[in-house]
Design goal:
The C terminus is likely disordered. The N and C termini lie far apart (65 Å). The chain has a domain of 113 residues. A hairpin with a 2-residue loop joins strand 1 and strand 2. The protein is an alpha+beta fold. 29% of the residues lie in helices and 25% in strands. This is Reverse transcriptase Ty1/copia-type domain-containing protein. It comes from Solanum verrucosum.
Length: 185
Amino acid sequence: MKDLGDLKYFLGIEILRSKTNILLNQRKYALELISESGLSGSKLAATPLEPNKKFNTVEYDELTGNTDDVIYKDVTAYQRLIERLLYLTTTRPDISFAVQLLSQFMQKPKVSYWETCLRLVRYIKGCPGQGILLSSTPSTQLEAFCDSDWASCPNTRRSVSGYLVKLGNSIISWKSKKQHTVSRS
């Protein structure tokens, strides 16, 4: 066995240490994602998603007669971008809800969803080195936060919820997901 010193990179995650904190980020991975998406010279986006944007399936649009948004032709490019964004959520909980939402349309993405993915990459461009800050100060204070809405998904009438758990100043768990089906009466 050989001592290689302090860990600096592991599976594309950069580990930066100070006396009081440890920062985990995927800056190099994020910069590669931005470059490969062709968005190096683009404007930044202030938020991961447009406010109040509704996401519907192609089947829902067919039932309602909406023909404004067509299916994106390069499905594999959409899937590849979502896969890369999913890996980036390892150290970027701020994008996890947007990526989870966009990943629901992997089989039949629309052009507007592709554009939303590109907006998300432009958001990441604003701070590619953002990550998770772990405090080395011992603390046993456990905090948990959750948020949900009731039947917000227009396709399934499911509720969307998420949670965040912190131990001291460090995030130890988070999730944003769809939950319980609501019966239609």
